[in-house]
Design a protein that fits this description.
Length: 290
Amino acid sequence: MAEIVYVNGEYVDRKDAKISVFDHGFLYGDGVFEGIRFYKRNLFKLREHLERLYSSAKYILLDIGRSIDDLTELVIETCRKNDLDDGYIRLVVSRGEGTLGLNPYHCSNPGLIIIVSKIQLYPEEFYTNGLPIITASTRRFGTDTVSPRVKSLNYLNNILAKVEAVHAGVQEALMLDRNGLVVECTGDNFFIVKRGAVYTPPTYQGALRGVTRDVVIELAKKRGIEVREERMTLYECYDADECFLTGTAAQVVPVSDIDHRIIGNGRPGDITKVLMEDFNKVTTVDGVKF
Ligand code: PMP
C-alpha cells in the first residue's frame, strides 16, 4: 500500500517526499509541528491540534499562509489518499527555503508537509502492566527561554532526556524544571492520583498543553473526579497512589514505577483504568470524519 505524503503543494509517494537542504526547518529547527491521530476515519480532536499549531506558529512569527479551514481540508484530502482507517499524522510547517543566515525574513514560503502513517509508541504490555519510567537529568527548558509550550521543530532537549531513558533500559523519562519541579515526560504529559484526586503540573510551568491532557481532564471531571493543576516535586510522585501519562501517540498509559519506586501496587490503578476506558470511547467520536 503506497504511502502518499503532501509536500509543499504536491502529493507524492513516500520515496519522493523530499525537501530542500536550505529549508530553515532543517537548518535551524525553525518551524512547528503537530502529531494527530485518527481512529476509524475520525480525526481525533483535529480542530484542537490545528489551533495549537497556529498558536505555536504565531509565537515564532511564522505565517502559515492559509486558513485553519483550508488546512483542515488538506489534512482530510491527504488522509483520503492514504487508505488507512487508523493512523497517525505528522503535520509540519517549516520556515521554508532561505539563505544560510538565521534571518527568517529571507525565507520565501513556509514549507508544509503532511505525513500519514502508523504509530505505536509503547508495546502493548505496558498498557496492561504499567510503564516503568526514570527522571532525566536533562531539565525541561525554562519558561524564560523560547516558550517550551511551543511545539517547535527543536526537540533536542527532549531527545537527550529520551536517550537517558533508553540508557536506563526504560521507555520514558520524567523531566523537571530548573527548580526540580516536575513538568512532563519527553513526549507525554504527566499525571498522578492521590486519595481519589487527579493532579497534573500546570502548563505555565512549561509543559506542553497536550490535547490528550485536556481530554483526560474533561473525562475525569465528567466522572466527578477532582482534577487539580498543581506544582509537584518527586516526593509527591513517588508517594502517589497511581500515575499515568497522556499523549496523542501514547494515549493514556499507566506508570508502574518511577526511579524504582513502585507506584501503588505497581499495577494500573482504578482511576487510571477508568480514564483509559473512557478515553477509548471518545477517540472515534470527537473530531472530524473523513
Ligand atoms: N508533551 C510533549 C513534550 C509532547 O511532545 C507531546 C506530544 N507528543 C505531549 C506532551 C502530548 O501532547 P498531545 O496530547 O497533544 O499529543
